[in-house]
Design goal:
The chain is an alpha+beta fold. Helix content is about 35%, strand content about 25%.
Length: about 170
């Protein structure tokens, strides 16, 4: 038999549980890169590739890191050998350090990626630079891409959404 007292206890418990709701992920510097990638729908394929390559734990760690995340359209247009290359390929798109566009420009437009290649600014505008990959010590080569959504702030770095996949030739 249900008593009035048990109804009050059950109702109070439901209210207490409703107050335990988790915070919604935002790009305000409180959440790690992998969580923030989850709220950027245009990079969902890249996020899935990071998970398959076991890089999610790395990008949830304190870092800091800077990720150049290709849009789904760009990721789909990349060679299959790159898309299926696992962590080795994906490290071409991840740099150590917390680098916003201003920081990249202050470094002469050069960023060393975890794979050892460089990303260099080769044109565009200050708010939408065009970047290209380069083998260490070599001139930029291969496809270039524009940064289409820069400076997405994460607790452990930055995400820059790019309109291409950077593979040095």
């Amino acid at each position: 038999m249900i008593t009035r007292r048990s109804l009050f206890v059950a109702g109070g418990s439901a209210l207490a549980l409703a107050g335990c709701e988790t915070a919604q992920v935002t790009a305000d510097g409180r959440f790690p890169i992998m969580d923030v990638l989850g709220i950027v729908p245009e990079v969902s394929d890249f996020r899935s590739a990071l998970r398959r390559a076991d890089l999610a734990d790395l990008l949830n760690s304190p870092g800091p890191f800077t990720v150049f995340a290709p849009t789904n359209l760009a990721w789909g247009g990349a060679p299959a050998s790159f898309r299926d290359g696992g962590a080795a390929s994906l490290r071409n798109l991840i740099a150590g350090g917390r680098l916003g566009l201003r920081d990249i420009q202050a470094r002469g437009g050069r960023v060393r990626m975890l794979s050892g290649i460089d990303i260099r600014v080769v044109g565009g505008t200050p708010t939408e630079p065009r970047i290209q990959a380069a083998r260490a010590g070599a001139a930029p080569s291969g496809a270039s891409a524009s940064v289409v959504r820069p400076n997405i702030l994460c607790s452990n770095g930055f995400i820059h959404v790019i309109g291409g996949v950077l593979i040095p030739a």
